[in-house]
Structures
1.
Amino acid sequence: MLLYFRLARRLATGFFVLTLVALMPGWAQSPDGSASGANKPAGSDGAPPVLPAPNPPDAANPVQPEKQDKRVFGVFPNYRTTDGNVPFQPITSKQKLLIGLKDSFDWPVYPVAGAFALLYQLENQNPSFGQGMKGYARRYGTALADQVIGNMMTESFMPSLLHQDPRYFRIGKRRGGVAYRAAYAASRIFVSRTDSGSQQFNASEWLGNGAAVAISNAYYPDTRTVGNNVERLGIACATDAFSQEMKEFWPDVKHFLFHRHEPDTQPLLSTQSESHQVTH
């Protein structure tokens, strides 16, 4: 019971930090629907295409894939979301690696790590880190390591090893109401697509986060008990579920706030290949 309350409290405070980061004026998306910062033309970063996925509602009249924003709330990396209403096409191990790298080293990762480090400082987690700038620096480094290792394990290494697809296949309003979509998004931490397009248990999520938690014992000297490890694993997987809820509903929230459907002018790892196929 104590572990349950600790997990719930940690999740609540963590999501509060994420919400504050997303809504800070300097980072939030502008009313014209574009994210802050300069835009780059499609394909200018040399990124390989990540094509859309699963099965269309009507194979005889396939829908056109929706473009997805590169960031949720103009902040959180969103490079692995794709349209779940178009025919599935697999991605390569190189593309899985690129998804993990983009999610791990995009600029919002650094202030988010700083926000979590501040939370951990206030709670005095891992007391051996101390307080002051030295303690905060250690907490910042470990919070950043948690994000990078977790992303790479769940989005790149484990999916490549287990032949699973790390993308989130957004279903949108075409496939159901709010409750159905919310349940679908949350369930994706348990269900994954394989490289062949079938569905199976999302071992990449749980083994990847489990490996990240095991590695974190090397730099968390005060929290190496079984209970601490189970707590960190639960927080990591629950955070991923929350992230998928944001991915699923962000276009709806964006339209409600800004009355726009258009995504950022810089695409995900997406439309370059589609345009190439049309012209050839």
2.
Amino acid sequence: MIEMKKIVSVLLTLGLCTSVIAQTTKGVPVAAKSNAHLKVFNQAMITGDLGAAIVALNYYISEQGGDNNYADTLAMIYMQQGAYAQCYYWSDKRLAAKPEDKNLMEMKGISLEKLQQPKEAIAIFEKLYAKTQSPYHAYKLMGLQYSIKRLAECIATANSAEKLEFKPEFVMTYNVGDEMGRTYLQAGIFNIHGLALYDLDRKAEGKAYFERAVALDSNFALARQNLEAIKVIEGKANKVDPNNPQNPGSPANKPKQN
């Protein structure tokens, strides 16, 4: 039996980083920019020392109070470092003051996902996707819905995503064992759509979405594996001995969680 693997998505951190750091400069008094802690922070960012940047911002925020945009940046850097509990703390705290901030919502949602709280993460990404109609947010929402077998919701999100505009530069990465691959975001959405349909015993429709994913990117390893798994099962089903029928199984069972 061939085991399907779940797509692993990555945040487009460069765009988020640029957006969040740009926000920190808005409305910051000149006196604050000359603050010793901010000087250390700026130097740490120039040299790529995120640990020192975190320390400097913690000192600055403890001195100035958390009601400033540098707390947004602190949340972002914690996420970059994989410190999701700390990222959640600051993004949640800042959302109390800026409840509609899309960057903060995204960081909070990703932190909840990484902290193994998919239901709470789904609530965040449902709201975020409704606001942005972003293919990336649709993909994140689908992945979360599929991970806890909210299959009908996953398919509804997928159908909504098909109406969105996808550009060639919309890409995603995924893991196959210890190796990393790269494909079009739309191909990734087709693959999850296929998984949800297959799990609902809509096998022919699921197979069609795997085929659409492979048509977009013939090197998309996950979709190719899923498609080949279905073909193997179909072949076994066609060869079942009527005097000794056996269940040919399923192509996937449960996708691996990361």
3.
Amino acid sequence: MQHKVPAGLDHKEAEVYRHLDPQKLPKHIAIIMDGNGRWAKRRHMPRVAGHRAGVAAVRSTVETAARIHIPALTLYAFSEENWKKRPKSEVDFLMRLLSRYLKAEVPTLNQNSIRLQYIGRQHELPPDVQERMAWARESTAANAGMVLTLALNYSARSEIVDAFRAMLTAAEQNGGVEHLRVDEDAVSRHLYTRHLPDPDLVVRTSGEMRLSNFLLWQLAYAEIYVTSTLWPDFRGVHLLEGIAEYQKRERRYGGLNHGDTHAQPL
């Protein structure tokens, strides 16, 4: 018997969803949103037009993920490296676009019971952007559905550096660094994502085959799905296609397949 299709999915999304196992959906999906510049270039438009078009992709993807009850979705929105390698005019536009997005989307987030969070060095962002971010987070804090996390001014290496700094600070305040215990659990508890499970699936758009300094610790055992679709063209149906591919894989976490238990040692 076919399972019930969640309300709100369009025809194409519903068709893909019917072939999914609702019991095996990823608990946390991370997305590297790539291809805005190429999308604009192919249309002989400025790069900022690609960023503006990418907002529709965010809206569609977030709503679809919430409708099928994905517990957590993390979007790589703005990397720490963007400050250094992008023209100031483009960075300024991205900051204005972020502020407008947050103001416009809070009603939709609340309608879908989505709770908004952020990771990254937020204190380095412009003060007015920080204020808008805080307002949006507080406006959705009571929602009990999907956690949407935006990675802003984010770098995985900086996150790990900040985690170790936090561990040292905590040790100094609690008996001295000689009592510091460093293990995987301790590091995980001091990462920006300590409130989230590690991602089960990471999606990268535009066909590029790299992680781009995104959640390097957390993605240790995530399944990777790469699509050639450029981010502004990405929609909820593409997310569901990525989940369909994810469900075809056997996740072993370094173990063996059931049929490999009698394999001979090398």
